[in-house]
Amino acid sequence: MSFDTHRQAIVTLLMAGVPTPIQVFKDNVPNLTVPPYVRVFTSTTYPAGQPEDMTHRSIRARCRIVAHSVGQTTDAADVVSNAVRAVLLDVTPTVSGRTCFPIRMESSVDPKPDETTGVLVMDQIDIYAFDSV
Fold first, then answer.
1. Phi-psi group of 80: left, alpha or beta (phi > 0 → left; psi -120 to 50 → alpha; rest → beta)
2. For residues 101 and 132, what is the distance between their CA atoms, to the nearest angstrom?
3. Model-level pTM greater than 0.85?
4. Packing angle, helices 3-17 and 74-88, rounded to 10
C-alpha cells in the first residue's frame, strides 16, 4: 500500500471538480504564480490496531489533507476555499483495494498574507481527513 494512492485520490477529485481558473498544485507552486490556486499537502498514517481488528494490526489508514487556498485578497482566498470544500466535504474518495469513509473537515484558519512565491497573496488553510480500511 502506497501513501500516494490516498494522495492521488484527493488530487484527482480536486482536478476534476475545482472550477477554472483555480489551479491545483500537488507539488511546489512555481515562483510568481498568480492566484487563484490551491496547494494540497497530504499525509497518510496507520494508527495502532483498532479494537475491531482482533490481530491488532494497523489496517486503518488516516489521510489528512491540508489545502492552502490562495487568492489575491481575503475574499478571493475564501472563494477558493469554498470551491475546495464543495469538492471534498462529505465525499467518499476511491482508493484501489481500500474501503474509504467520507471526507470530513477538521479545521480552518482565516487567510493570512504570504509572499513565499514572490507574489503577495492571501493563504487560507483548511484541514480535512478521511479514513480507509
1. alpha
2. 6
3. yes
4. 110
The mean of the pLDDT values for the chain is: 91
Tens digit of pLDDT for each residue in 38-53? Answer: 999 999 998 766 555 5
Tell me how far apart the alpha carbons of residues 84 and 78 are, in angstroms, rounded to a whole number: 10
Q: Is 3-132 CATH 3.90.1680.10?
A: no
* Angle at alpha carbon of residue 88, lines to 86 and 94, rounded to 5°: 140
Average pLDDT, integer, range 55-66 = 84
Q: Where are the domains of the chain?
A: 3-132
Grid cell, residue 111, equals 487567510
Helices (H), the chain: 3-17, 74-88
